[in-house]
Amino acid sequence: MLNAKDLRRKINESLKGKSEVEQIGIIEGYIQEWPSNVRGEYVRMRRHLVRRLNKLRTRSLTRASSGGHSDDPFVIAKSGHLTAALVGLPNAGKSYVFHRLGGDGATIADYPFATVIPAIHLTSLDNLRIQIIDLPPLVEGTIASLPYGEKLTRIVSLADVLCIVLDASGDTEVQELILADELNSIGIKTEGMAVLVLNNRVKYAADFSPMTEGSILAGTRVGLRSKRDFDCVLSQIARAGGYISTLAKPPGRSLDQANRLWMKDGTTVRDLAASVHKELARRLIGARVWGESARQPGQKVSADHLLADGDVVELLAQ
Q1: CATH dotted code for 244-317
Q2: pLDDT for 12-22, tens place per residue?
Q3: pTM of the model
């Protein structure tokens, strides 16, 4: 690695005469490739680069937020059946969670404020289409004054599910308190929203508890440690958004031949049949159900029978 003086000169030369967008890309490249084992002047230089990067991003965002033109990254059209917004403090790992859910376009880095504009990903969960939005971090005491604060408020308020990302390696109670205060300051009341709390960076399974008693933010809690944990996030978003999982199968067939269908809570056997095929719904005479909504396994029910999450349904037609 170059000595500190030569490296500073090299960085300054590479930035000279470049546009703000080009400078942002160049500085991001330097920060991501910065060795982790350096000390002294190199650490101070990296901190300076991070501050410079944040200033460049803020100026860029101020122009985008005040222009009101159609390519404003904070003007987002809802898409799919559900929209989930990832919200968290700087360096909580939102962009990493977004990436693990299949999204791209978000910067993953070991420094805060890596995400400065929303990143959007539309993904599938069986028959459901879920739109995931990775938002810029909420900053204690400053969100109301941010150039994009009002637009951030609109995105959060329009989301069907608010995914609160916490850094489990830190004090999650303090993080929850800050996030609740910041959301409240911009008029977002989490008590009336579907909330999913994602505890990122859980090191050991025993360190995480799904219990909500005494928690500042209400909502289902998920610990993210293994691949299996991340694989379950979409289904948790669906459930938080008011959907239930059902398995629909033809008479006499095995579960291997069943189709998993996500339906709105309060759905009936008839609704499920209609989602499979309109003709099936027309010919439907009832169903046999295994699961929470059945009094006994394989109970024969009417077409108006209300289904529960996890039910296996054998649709009967004439």
Answers
A1: 3.10.20.30
A2: 999 988 887 77
A3: 0.73
